[in-house]
Amino acid sequence: MKSFEPVIVAFCCHYCAYTAADMAGSMRRCYPPNIHIIRVPCSGKVDAIHIMKAFQKGADGVYVAGCLEGDCHFKNGNIQAARRVDYMKRLLNEIGVDGERLEMMTMSAGMGERFASTASEFTEKIRRLGPNPVKRGERDKAAGA
User: Fold this and answer.
1) Position 47 pLDDT exceeds 70
2) What pTM value is reported for the model?
3) How far is CA 51 from CA 16, 22, 57, 117, 125, in A?
4) Around Cβ 46, how many Cβ atoms within 10 Å?
5) Quick one: which of 134, 144, 19 has its CA closest to 71?
6) How many CB atoms neighbour CB 41 within 10 A?
7) Rounded to whole angstroms, what are the CA distances from 85 to 9, 94, 129, 131?
8) Phi and psi torsions of 133, nearest 5°
9) Mind listing the pLDDT tens digit for each residue in 48-66?
10) What are the residue boundaries of the structural domains of the chain, listed by start?
11) For the chain, which terminus, N or C, has the lower number of CB atoms within 10 Å?
12) How far apart are CA 142 and CA 145, in angstroms?
């Protein structure tokens, strides 16, 4: 059996997390190639539907990465995002998709090393959890058809 390579969707705020990802690349800090970055104007703009769609479309893990607390360019977008992520984690647990598959991370634009390390740590966590149960269910349906 081939090893499981998770698909990770990272919603990154334009001002901090996306810039940190860019800095990680400039610093030649490696992070897993399975991280699919979606740049958003602010982490507070990531809505519940965006997170659910990512899982529905096959993501094994999702994280929202925003500015450090108190440094949001839109005042409190990162605080709103953290609340939304907490809510969504509870909802995911209720519907049978482990809430541990979703995380909120904060970093500044200069934290390229942190971006790379958290991306790697999150990928390892998702690898231990295994494939997204929604994706597994779709695969089982296809096999039975």
Assistant:
1) yes
2) 0.90
3) 20, 23, 10, 22, 18
4) 26
5) 19
6) 13
7) 14, 14, 19, 20
8) -60, -30
9) 999 999 999 999 999 999 9
10) 8-144
11) N
12) 5
Whether residue 104 contacts residue 63, with contact meaning beta carbons closer than 8 Å, is answered with yes
Mean pLDDT of the chain: 91
Give all strands of the β-sheet with 8-13 in edge-to-edge order.
Answer: 35-40, 8-13, 61-66, 102-106
Q: Which of 69, 101, 104 has the alpha carbon at shortest distance from 86?
A: 104
First to last CA, the chain: 23
DSSP labels for 27-87? TT----TTEEEEEES-GGG--HHHHHHHHHTT-SEEEEEEPPTT--TTSSHHHHHHHHHHH
The alpha carbon torsion through 126, 129, 133, 138 (nearest 10 deg) reads: 70
Q: Who's near 95: CB < 8 A, 6+ residues apart?
A: none
Q: Six-digit token pair at 71?
A: 């440094």
List C-alpha distances in Å: 49 to 2, 16, 145.
32, 23, 29
Fold classification of 8-144 (topology level): Rossmann fold (3.40.50)
Residue with tokens 């839109």: 74
Give the integer Cα–Cα distance in Å for 24 and 84: 27
